[in-house]
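The instructor's notes for this session suggest beginning with a concrete chain rather than abstract definitions. Hand out the sequence below and ask the class to guess, before any prediction is shown, which regions might be ordered.
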Amino acid sequence: MSGPSRGTLTRVPPLNLGNQEPKSPLDAAHAWAATAERAGEYVLFFDFDGTLAPVDDDPNAVKPAPKVLAALEALAPVVRRVAIVSARPVEFLRDHFGGLVGIDLYGLYGLEHSHSGGETVTEPAALPWVPTMAELADLARAELPPGTLVEFKRLSVALHYRTAPHLAEAVESWGRAQADRLGLRVQAGRMVLELKPPVDRDKGMVIDEAVRSAAGAWYFGDDVSDIKAFTALRARAAADPEFVGVCVAVANPETGQEVARAADLTIDSPSALGDFLSDAAARLR
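After discussion, reveal the predicted structure:
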């Protein structure tokens, strides 16, 4: 059955904690109704940290929120694709989602990916930068003040200061100086600065490629890097009025307002998102 265009859907108050005008004329109920019409042609995209999982002082201790895994397992057979698009490496994501069937994993902002449990494929242009990143991680551990958590991800280095927020200026100044010295790109995040290779790959590009033949898509994110994914959905909807793109922000105290201003809907927390997705799975079935 052909789904309705966005313009034919009734406009009702959005689920939006930021109180801004939504970019799409859909509230949550109408967005899921539109999705149900053509669920097999929809893609659901999710960031990981702060979206599917609460942020933790120790990045290695982060786990999906309650109900998330069961909801994704229920949604995957119903929609065209479910994809996790994260700053984490694919192998980290595989540890948490590898037991689910039909989940695509995009790691390191799309520098590597694995489709439906397949092998991990790395962007060839990024591979020569692995030694540079390893050396940078060692240098960061030697030069940055105690309280900084240095996370080496093979193709990027994340400098966390969540447990020592007073170090923000020192860590960011050091990181940006190293990026200038080595020709790296900088990605700011929630109390973290990440340095990555100068390779044209980001969440927006992943989404742009994955939705070209889709009838619609949802993207759930909490950080500034997710705004590029929102922008990709907006562009796809602008090019095709029949395409339904829904951008969902997950609230947080650091970047929540900026992300919410770019979104259609806002969810309170990763835990609340688990409930939201469980309800969505029931609607789509």
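Then share the key points. The domain at 125-196 is CATH 3.30.70.1020 (Alpha-Beta Plaits). Residues 1-23 have pLDDT under 50 and may be disordered.
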